[in-house]
Protein 1
Amino acid sequence: MNVPLYIGEIIESSTIEFIAESRELHSPPRFGSFVKADLFSSESNEQTSISTGIEDPIEDPFATNAIKPSSGYSQMQEDLPVRISPAIFGVVYHASTTNTDTTRRRAYWKEEEQLKEEQPELSEWLLMTEFRAIVVGYSENGRIRWHLPPHPPRIHSFVYPCTTDDIYVLTSRFDFLRTLANFRNAPTEEILAACIREAAQVYEDRATEFKAKAAKELARLMRDDYELLQAVIRRFES
Amino acid sequence: MSRDMDTTSSQKRQEIGQVVSGSLLEGLKMKLNPENSVEDIRAGKFVVVQGEKNEFFSMITDVILETSAKGLLENPPQRDDALLKLAVSGTTTYGTVQLRPMLMLPIGSQEDMRPVKTIPGHFSLVYSADSQDVNRIFGDERVDNKFFHIGTPIDMDDTPVCLNLERFVERSNGIFGKSGTGKTFLTRIVLCGIIKNRKAVNLVFDMHSEYGWEGNVEDTQRPKVRGLKQYFQDSVAVFTLDPNSSKRRGAPVDFEVRIPYSQITPEDIVLLQEELNLTPTTLETCYPLVTKFGDTKWFNELLSMSMEDIKDFCAQYNVHQRSLEALQRKLNVLAKSCSGFLTKDEDEKGTDAVSSIISYLTDGKHVVIEFGQHSRPLEYMLVANILTRRIHETYVRLTEEWMGERGPKPIPLVITIEEAHKFLSPALSRQTIFGTIAREMRKYNVTLLVVDQRPSGIDPEVLSQVGTRITCLLNEERDIDAVLTGVSNAQSLRGVLASLDSKQQALVIGHAVPMPVVIQTRTYDDELFRKSMGYRTEPPTRDEMEREISIDYS
């Protein structure tokens, strides 16, 4: 199946977050899911990116990575990746669909099919789904860093969903939880819980163990806010 | 022996936490590693703190639950908040453990342990001790026979904790614990150690006839346990006050004890004042009697006095007549109730129990005196006091001869008494021979092994002189206080003492162990014990005893 890998294009970029337009209307990446954007090397100003030379990449550029999703969680921490493509990683914290023409921002009182027929420009041109992601780390020289990249992702570069391997490596340490917990533009308990739920899917039968470890990390982070801790844990425990 | 050379230790050091705070006075506080359950941590457990320069050998004295989360305790996780509970356990709720460093040693050093004069730094790692640590501190009986295995540390079943018997017999010692906690078994084990390793001779006042031939067990399904005589046939002599009882129990007896009236002194009567319900005035009337009739005859004379004699005597010595009558009445009761072994006849000198006991003891043989049916405190105290006084006199003489280089050094003597609080109560300890022995300590080579369930009844001054205390479970606050009299860090040991199992566990503190330790006592008279004691056919000769002891003590 020739499914293009990228799911969005960055339309606004900053150090701590980026906003991308979703490639498909009404289909932003899931809340709390991991996405990545190209990382441009600051020195050469050249894109050492995932999509180098690939116009519309249909193959997973991470497929050659040495990390096997089946390798155990604890093992992951010991042998962290030596080869992982350069990218900036983010967690989706917000998605919205709006009309870009603010003068036509109104209700039409039509069935969806009828509306499409009568006002095709709406879905084809005017309506836009955008999502926002908070930057939780980046990879460079084959190593993951759990801190902010030296430069924000470039505007109009593509956004891709993270592969299973990416998520494995990213979640091998829980530093991203702290970044999320301190982020004030999204409901903390929601974004944390959603992110852990998303990550846990990757762990399949080890999901419970992953959740337990995450919960312990949260307990440490939120020792001063037991109510919040309780709220987060209740949102991802089952 | 370096750590990695040791192949015998099966218990390896395991990290259990790290030091987070502490002081030299209060001890250390350790945060428990999240993977260790607080329930695995027992008070009394033996741990090693690895400091930067020193290793600190410590005992766990308290286990505490703590939390760093605000609001958690007001609103604890509910029954079905499993993940929440899991999340906070080990992170914001955690166990801390109070440690009491007892000894320290520079890392890599082969020197002896030192008392603790500093504490390890922040975040020093804490390990559960391994066999080698235990051997290093408490000695190894395979290396030196002054060490004797009396049990194992808590949670370390195959590592022996040893008592240094040479130090043990240097001072008076106590074995305490409430009834049914295994005092008697522990005493037997210690006595076996002293006999087997030939560190002293024993004189046991065996109130309930449990040490000599065989002893009872509470579980009636199990066979009776062997006594000292069965273990060390020829080097143990059993004396009895009640041959009939011994016969009924099928216990062979070496000697029957008979005590002539002439042996009784006013001091013996003073000891019995409570049992006989004597007033001080009545007691004082003993002394004019001694003045008139002499040390050996007064008792006999008093009993045979008629009313007329009493009147004359009172007139002559200005004694209150009622008092003398009361004394005569009470001593008559005494003579009657002790008629089994108290004899009027002076001509039984050939079989004088005291001199034969002394000759056994100076020959290096151990003597167990069974009381049979005569096990009431009155009889027990009278006999123990009379015999001990004479034996002590002999030992004082022998020791003085030795000091004047006119005789051999006497073999150290350990006298075991039960119900010791009756002899050593604050009111009596200054007047009885036992108080004297407890205070004089090793000067005359005679020490006590005090077996008691009410240590609070013992004179604190005597208790403070007790060298080694082996304490089984005690519940009564006053008893715990008494046992810990004169022990540093008593407060932290209280909790340990109160949390002992009710059987086969004991806290050992004092002279014969380098640091306080809680032990699971070894099982008396099981296959292993019998094997380690070995059935000897030949008793040690006087020469052997002397050689060994003079080497050890010179």
Protein 2
Amino acid sequence: MTIKLPIYMDYHATTPVDERVLEAMLPYFRENFGNAASRSHAFGWSAEEAVEKGREEVAKLIGAVGKEIVWTSGATESDNLAIKGVAEFYKDRGSHIITAVTEHKAVLDTCKRLEKQGCVVTYLPVDSDGRVNPQTVADALTDKTILVSIMLANNEIGTVNPVDEIGALVKARGAFFHIDAVQGVGKIPFDVNRSHADLVSLSAHKMYGPKGIGALYVRRKPRVRITPIIDGGGHERGMRSGTLNVPGIVGFAKAAELCRLEMADESSRVLALRERLRKGIEARVPNTVVNGSLEHRLPGNLNISFAFVEGEAMMMALKDVAVSSGSACTSASLEPSYVLRALGVAEEMAHTSIRFGLGRFTTEAEVDYVIDLVADKVKRLREMSPLWELAQSGVDLKSIQWGAH
Amino acid sequence: MAYSNKVIDHYENPRNVGSLDAAASDVGTALVGAPACGDVMKLQIKVGKNGVIEDAKFKTFGCGSAIASSSLATEWIKGMTVDQAMSVRNTQIVEELSLPPVKIHCSVLAEDAIKGAIADYRKKQEHRTESAA
């Protein structure tokens, strides 16, 4: 079987738009191009109808109702709107926010900004699997806590948090619960009521929809209020002004429908591929460590450290495979992944991590090709690695006095 | 990040990968960088009686630019006298490989590795002279 190169294994970064999604969107660029806010003619009415139908469809995927969906430009905006919106609206009630160290930057940097404005933020640690222990949430909650923001699944290591348990604790203390569910929804079962979520961030392009469209679920019963961060025409019941991205919404809705209908089959297929990749690599390559939990993990995620082989060099070797790395060299900061560091992964191992993201269009032939390639390239790079040479000759790398950064 | 063609060439066809006998009196060895920083270079030189570097070998744990910097360093210093090799500057490596600002530390490490290997070699020579005397 011939393989088409390059192979895409970076499904956490983004996913290709499903053909069925694209087909659904096209009429809304062409004949149905109307502004959903135009109340006076048929162009507007057909756009509005599509938008409202889309709300219902996206809501259905997470056990919500259409009126609880606020359209945004994507998950970063949803995270900002949820956190800043609650902090501002309920500032008289309290100013304490709880989140976790492994959250996405859209959550962490939003919290940091709020700290500058007087909020107090608790950044919870995670266990060695990268999970937030619900007890740490319970211990951190105070009467001043207005919001707890915990992700459903982590974008780097795929670790799935016990959000249902955390949500119950948050609700019992009367705080609001925000879940950045971008990486999990559409891949694993998720329900806003089971998790006691008040606010949930979603993004279309992580579930085979288009980029530039996201949503924030905002609970109606009991009602959660947020102060908008974008002012203007009062769209989305005043929570998010701006002309709606109708083709994007239609695509998001179709993507959500497909996930709802196909998730069970797709997840077991993707999980089997992920396990084939993991076992194939582990059988061929010694000295590897899987980062994160194998039990509580997204089906399509494999984050693995190849000891003694630096991640960026590895990515260069895998040039026909699109993956990402927790190595410092992939960022301008020169610091390795803060997520891996939070798990207690040593810096030298964090530098050797590679994230494989598998998804809807990954094939068994691609997985087998990648296993062969990885085995071959790790061998080559280790032959070039002074650390491998030292380790092979029995030297404990920790016994060496290394230079400073 | 896009790599320059020269970085890719050195990465894909690294010159002088390997090891020399670190215990030999005519071999100088340096091990610079740190695993926690994501870069470790081992660079070795073998010096002839006339002070000319007859052979140079490296092994590098690091990104493509780090591998290319050390590969280029060994290529350059082979055939140089020890004194000439002392004058190789990281800026020359940056220029030759068109390294972007975030990769300048790779070239610094390569310069450190050259100097470290020469220092090790010289130390061995001093010991020899002392024990001969």
